[in-house]
């Protein structure tokens, strides 16, 4: 069954009805999960690589949908009162600066090197994802937290630059890192930390995307079709209570990511 599906993805016209349905369907799921939690972009890489793309092209192609979906979710979070644009900009600028170096590294590295690097990084992100559930529930903003969140010193700036470098290299998992930073360093509750994540991704993704475009590492037909699903999933998820069901989804994605990371490393031997 899996062999037949892999052959179908590899040999079919991306404009065929079946491939379009798969791209939009997976895009909806990824957009939904990325908005609620994160890590689902790894599934984008798996799908695109099954369609015959090198991992660097899969990485670049996924960024089109990422930009579209997070732009939509940012609007919904803002309208719902869970996105502080000023603080989101403070976070987004260092993330964007770091993303330039990360995207350049991803664009020029040998695909095999990147596959091994992702195979190592993704399970680490999965563990962090599971660990992050502790202490999130019931988090509320106090006046002290509100005051602390407005202080954005050099150390926080540098921390978000490094997060951006990771995001430029691979989008998979960067949302979790931005949530970590907003949650632990800025003292935000999980809902507002998620809102910051949405907007920070919107700020940094055009820079990372431009580098992949420069290197010709975007499959535009696939990217645009897939983005339709991403936007749909992001809009649906943004309308949900952000914490509802997020823990279950995070566990499911963590398992999928661990399986993918094993495959990325195993195929090198």
Structural commentary:
The chain is an all-alpha fold. It is built from 12 helices and no strands. The mean pLDDT is 81. The protein has one domain. Helices cover 78% and strands 0% of the residues. Helix 2 crosses helix 11, helix 3 packs antiparallel against helix 4 and helix 8 runs antiparallel to helix 9.
Give the terminus-to-terminus CA distance.
Answer: 24 Å
Counted beta strands: 0
Tell me the strand percentage band.
under 5%
Mean pLDDT: 81
In short:
This protein has 12 helices and no strands. It is an all-alpha fold and 269 residues long.
Describe the secondary-structure layout.
Elements: H1 2-11, H2 17-36, H3 41-50, H4 55-79, H5 85-108, H6 111-131, H7 143-149, H8 154-169, H9 174-185, H10 190-214, H11 220-239, H12 246-266
Helix pairs in contact: 2-3, 2-11, 3-4, 4-5, 4-10, 4-11, 5-8, 5-10, 6-12, 8-9, 9-10
List keywords for this structure.
globular; mainly alpha; 12 helices; 269 residues
